[in-house]
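Quick one:
INPUT:
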């Protein structure tokens, strides 16, 4: 059984959310999706992404 990745790349987040990588990159840069940079590359903690989605589903505007 493959262990679930805790840290996602922009491509993985885009795939997870079923949106384009360009849109995902913009949302992370704008702070609308929680993310952090390692060097020049953005990363997203999967647990933070799931929490963010939960808040959006409950009508919280972030």
């Amino acid at each position: 059984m493959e262990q679930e990745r805790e840290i996602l790349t922009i491509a993985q987040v885009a795939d997870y959310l079923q949106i384009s990588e360009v849109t995902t990159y913009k949302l992370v840069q704008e702070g609308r999706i929680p993310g952090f940079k390692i060097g020049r590359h953005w990363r997203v903690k999967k647990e933070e992404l799931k929490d963010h989605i939960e808040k959006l589903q409950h009508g919280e505007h972030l």
